[in-house]
Prior knowledge:
Number of strands: 7
Oligomer: single chain
Number of helices: 6
Strand order of the largest sheet: 4-2-6-7
Shape: globular
Helix content: 25-40%
Strand content: 15-25%
CATH topology: Uracil-DNA Glycosylase, subunit E
Amino acid sequence: xxxxxxxxxxxxxxxxxxxxxxxxxxxxxxxxxxxxxxxxxxxxxxxxxxxxxxxxxxxxxxxxxxxxxxxxxxxxxxxxxxxxxxxxxxxxxxxxxxxxxxxxxxxxxxxxxxxxxxxxxxxxxxxxxxxxxxxxxxxxxxxxxxxxxxxxxxxxxxxxxxxxxxxxxxxxxxxxxxxxxxxxxx
Length: 186
């Protein structure tokens, strides 16, 4: 369950960062158990007022193989920093949502990088395995009144299932793809 920290955000100090690194260790272990490459997020500076939840990291542009991905991560590569799409997301969050006094955190439900063609295989089962760590992550990085935003339809539909705990409300999906003629339901 999420804790509200008695209505207060966790103090930003060594305890916050140590707790985040311990959580990352459990995330890495689960990614390895899933036979994927753990792709860490940038470590948050402190509790966030907004948490954006995406699907899972994909291999491709930044690394074509698991071995290349591990080498890049070992060299300091982090998720949500280098793509054009991510830059647009950061710009929109900073320009239209967060003022300079607010923090935000972007994460994925599962943190194991994989090829896009493999991502839909057993996605719900994978998300179910990762969900307890996602809950811990939100509990750690979110302020007690944080807004949690599902990025895209797949994430929104997954998080709308019970039991996404309160007090954090999942907002409507951000960047939900438009229906085109080929994707419209009759």
